[in-house]
Amino acid sequence: MSRIVVTGIGAISSLGNNISENHTSLINSKCGLSSLDNFKTNYSDTLKFGEIKLENIKLKEILNIKDESVTRTSLLGLNVIKEAIEDSSLSKNEISSYDTALIVGNTVGGMCLTDELYSDANSVSNPSPYLSSYDCGSVTLFLQKQYAIKGVCNTINTACSSSANAIIYGARLIKNGFAKRVIVGGIDSLAKFTINGFNSLGILAPQNCKPFDKDRNGLNLGEGAGFLVLEKESDAINKKHYAVLSGYCNANDAFHASALSENGEGPFLAMSGALNLAHLLPQQIGYINCHGTGTENNDEVESKALLRVFKN
Q1: I want to staple 133 with a disulfide (CB 3.0 to 4.6 A). Which of 50, 110, 180, 305 is the partner?
Q2: Helix, strand, coil: what percent of the chain each, to 5?
Q3: How far is residue 164 from each of residues 159, 168, 171, 251, measured CA to CA in Å?
Q4: φ and ψ at residue 230, rounded to 5 degrees
């Protein structure tokens, strides 16, 4: 089978509102952490977050969205998918054809509008406009409707691995003949719900996250979106190819809902499986992008898994 290549990319984060801005910020070692500006919580000024400074009003203006029930999560996703589609030069007919799929990794969904939903539940008798946009699947449905996508559409909610699993699923759709091209990626926005949830675990850092450091003190929550357009190399001969998706794997050690096993069996199996699929040896890898949460459990276990795979 023809190789799977990346022909379009889009991204927004606290480092920039598009791919170019993110790239420039990374080259210049810019830090995207700051206090919260777009909404207030008890932790707005005491913790650091990776917040996108574009307000919802501005995003709706840019994207020409009038519906008040559209969540920040959906707005960020639409902004980035638009960039990825334009970058890949997909036509309107290609996007809406039955062989174009959309796979979205997402956890927050409409949780960023929990306060509004709660207010409606206590003050109005009619159904709240925020109810239908609350779950994570609503984001995918919104994006599907915006582009009239008729192919396979699915939402993957596996917390931090959601986007990676979306990419894997998209690649398998192409490999097994269920799609010619797939728009894959993930979105999450900051929300009081998730900030309070992570804070209850006692793992939010008051300063910048320091993974694998002896003075680690937790993680910093952020928001953002990133999408890729995947296509078979044979179908994208006249397009630029950012990368070849040669190997991938997910695994589950079934150890604990929010902790990894002591020997890092899950990440070890996932990395080993990806290398095997790509027919690569550990010594051929030049860069590793770690989970790196700066928590004691993750840092210890991820280190053990890396040492098991990359022995030297």
Answers
A1: 110
A2: 40, 15, 45
A3: 10, 6, 11, 12
A4: -105, 135
Task: Collect the ranges in the chain with pLDDT lower than 70.
Answer: 124-125
All structural domains of the chain: 4-245 (3.40.47.10), 247-312 (3.40.47.10)
DSSP calls for 108-157: -TTGGGHHHHHHHHHH-SSPPTTTTTSSTHHHHHHHHHHHT--S-EEEE-
Instruction: Kindly state the tokens that stand for 14.
Output: 């606290």
The model's pTM is 0.94
- Nearest alpha carbon to residue 76 among 192, 228, 226, 230: 226
pLDDT at residue 129 in the model: 76
Model confidence over 118-171: pLDDT tens digits?
Answer: 787 777 667 777 777 888 889 999 999 999 999 999 999 998 999 999 999 999
Q: What is the DSSP string of 229-255?
A: EEEEGGG-TTS---EE-----------
